[in-house]
Specification:
This protein is mainly α. The protein has two domains: 32 residues; 93 residues, no CATH class. Helices cover 59% and strands 0% of the residues. The chain is built from five helices and no strands. Helix 2 crosses helix 4, helix 3 packs across helix 5 and helix 4 crosses helix 5. The radius of gyration is 26 Å and the shape is globular. InterPro entries: Lysozyme-like_dom_sf, Transglycosylase_SLT_dom_1. Keywords: Signal. It comes from Streptomyces naganishii JCM 4654. Pfam families: SLT.
Length: 138
Amino acid sequence: MSVSFIRRIAAPKKALTTAAVAAATVGMALTSAPAHAAPAHSAADAKTVAHKMIPDAAQFNAFSHIVERESGWNVNATNASSGAYGLVQALPGSKMASAGADWKTNAQTQIKWGLDYMKSRYGSPVGAWNFWQANGWY
């Protein structure tokens, strides 16, 4: 068997092996996101987070009614006329930075801020919902 024949067989195998290793490496890099990546929550994710943070059914339901009407559980909801932002429509949205630097994209941070706001202003989410029903805002 000649050396040139062996080189012709080995070269394509080496190229394929190199390509496979490179593809596997890229695939691993693409599938492993850092743990600190900013979460972008869907409406279902945001509701799940809220349910964990608000175990009392009456308080959760009141909070949920408000968020459904204010933002439709959209973490990025923005009121075009007022500029209110997020799940609970904070005005200005940057107020939520007091609950976390990731306030623009993290449902948990927005929920935490919203709960604190409702508790300080209305005593609870139920109090906020009662006010919302009477006034159409909170």
